[in-house]
Amino acid sequence: MIEKFCEYLVNLIRKQMPEMDDDQAAIVLYGIEIIVGEIPKIFLMFITGFLLGFWWQTLVAFFLILPYKVCSGGFHLKTHIGCIICTNVIYCGNAILSSIVTIPDYMKWILLLITLILGMICVTKYAPADTENLPILTKKERHTKKTLSYIFLAINLIAVILVPNRIISNILLFGTFIQTISITKFAYKITKNQSGYELYLREQVANHS
């Protein structure tokens, strides 16, 4: 249903923009599918959190990590069902875990240091982590998103230290760690994703060889 609706929208756009080729239409279709698919996915995530009794924690888990996620990128699952399940597991799971776990101060500092080091390495190597269907190709956009990824990584981890609420502090720590993992080669491999920018670079090298 979602796919057919998105295809219908793309066909309307192509009628208004006849110069759009098939490759451009495929990119537009993928972007629309993400936008349209996000609405029911987020709605179901909040419903799940509410039914489990962790509604506000789920809300906080989603919105606090969102800026870092938007800038650093990450994998996308191939099906809407897969995306819904993954979103619920990540955000509702973070909300539940953060609510029931009490981390000793020394352990929180160790996890914070691990997340900082891992985050700096992963942002340097992989951010912004795009996909083959929605590549980020311009140097300006890539530079901006990488810089913002460093900034939001730092903000999240500083907030882990400064926020007095244990649950919110845990949410920031676990959420930042999970988002950092989502941009790695390992995450891309197990979800069968490819970096759109790396594919673009390989094509450029092939065309000039």
SS elements, strand count = 0
Give the count of helical stretches. 9
Instruction: Please identify the structural class as seen in this structure.
Output: mainly alpha
The end-to-end span amounts to: 43 Å
- Unreliable parts: none
Radius of gyration: 19 Å
| Mean of all residue-level pLDDT scores | 90
Order of helices and strands: HHHHHHHHH
Outline, from the CA principal axes?
globular
Strand content: under 5%
Percent range of helical residues: over 70%
How many separate structural domains?
A: 1
Annotation keywords:
209 residues; mainly alpha; 79% helix; globular
In words, what does this structure look like?
- The N and C termini lie far apart (43 Å).
- The protein is an all-alpha fold and 209 residues long.
- It is globular and about 60 Å long.
- It has 9 helices and no strands.
- The longest helix is centred in the first third of the chain and has 31 residues, at 22-52.
- The chain has one domain.
